[in-house]
Amino acid sequence: MKVEATEVDGRKVYSVRAFNQGIATWLARLPTLWVEGEVTELRRQQRWQSVFFTLKDPDDGSCVSVQMPRGQFDALRLDLVDGERVHVFGRPELYEQRGELRLKALTIERYGLGAHLAALERLKQKLAAEGLFDQARKRPLPRFPQLIGLVTGNDAAAKGDVLTGIVQRFPAANVLVAETYVQGPRAPAAISTAIGDLCRRGVDVVVLARGGGSFEDLLPFSDERVVRAVSSCAVPIVSAVGHEQDTPLCDLAADVRASTPTAAARLVVPDRAELRARLTQLRERLHRGARTTTERHTRRVEAAHERLRRAPQLALERRRGRLDTLQARLGALSPVATLERGYAIVRRGDDVVRSAAQVTGGDELSVHVADGTFGARVE
Question: Is the pTM of this model over 0.85?
Answer without folding.
Answer: no
